[in-house]
Amino acid sequence: MQELTFVQKHSLQQYTESEKETDYSEKDSHYIRCLQAMEETMDTDAYILDYRKEQILYMSTHCSLRKAFRNGAEMNGPYNYQLLDQIILREDLEKVEIINRLGYEFYFALPMERRYRGSSVIDIRIRSANGKYILMNHKMSPLDITEDGRIRLGLCVLTSPASKTPVTSYLKMSDDHTVYEYIEKAKRFVQVKVQRLTPKSEKVLELAGCGKTEKEIADILGISLHTVKYHKRMILRQLNVRNTTEAVQWINSQKTLADTI
To answer: Which residue, among 127, 123, 163, has the nearest Cα to 139 in the 3D structure?
Structure first.
């Protein structure tokens, strides 16, 4: 059976054996303390991934991974990050391999000063404490980078899924607010715009999403029924979706991404 792993390796991301054996630094303790401080004010579902040592450096008390890993014992870390492969659905791991390779290519093409400003987002199925797989949103942003630009530590945050489809993935840049969506059929990331629609089209879509009929939308907006139908046709064409429901899901997803950048 093919070996699959959630944290894919890349030729430019490799660490030597001597680098892997390097002791943890005061900086690592500082990052752990920062995450612990977040836990004291909110139920933080997060962990720190050490790419150099190939370990999970720390998991928050409320981290979903802690519940999935636990076998009657507390986990204080660090732990080999291949433990992640045991709790992520294999079907999703098969797709993650391609996504991660493209993600690394995107990351290493960035100028050094922008590498801290990018993050990856993916919806994957993770085994819960009761053994069932649930869809969760996994975000990773570089926390510490080596002088030559390799990711050393990554902060990973787990939240409710941004979509209903497993392995929906995005790359985000916080400095210029660009978002890139992974298109599975094309096997590549494509830049998307958070606001593609005109204000009028957005309002038509908003009302349609609230269950308003075309006539009701026309009356509310003071436009003709013909104009409402025109806007709906243009929305489906612009967003490349099949119906209004998919259009509403798409635009909500983009707004969520914009709000979190």
So the answer is: 123
48 neighbors 155 (Cβ within 8 angstroms)? yes
Write out the two tokens for 231.
């806007």
pTM (2 d.p.): 0.72
Q: In Å, what is the CA distance from 57 to each residue of 15, 135, 218?
A: 16, 24, 56
Report how far residue 192's alpha carbon sits from residue 178's, in angstroms, rounded to the nearest whole number. 7
Tens digit of pLDDT for each residue in 39-61? 888 888 999 999 999 899 999 98
Cβ atoms within 10 A of the Cβ of 14, count?
A: 11
**Lookup: tokens for 68:** 């999935």
- Largest Cα separation within the chain, whole Å, is 71
Peptide bond into 161 cis (omega under 30): no
Q: How far apart are CA 48 and CA 142, in angstroms?
A: 10
Distance CA 115, CA 188 (A): 20
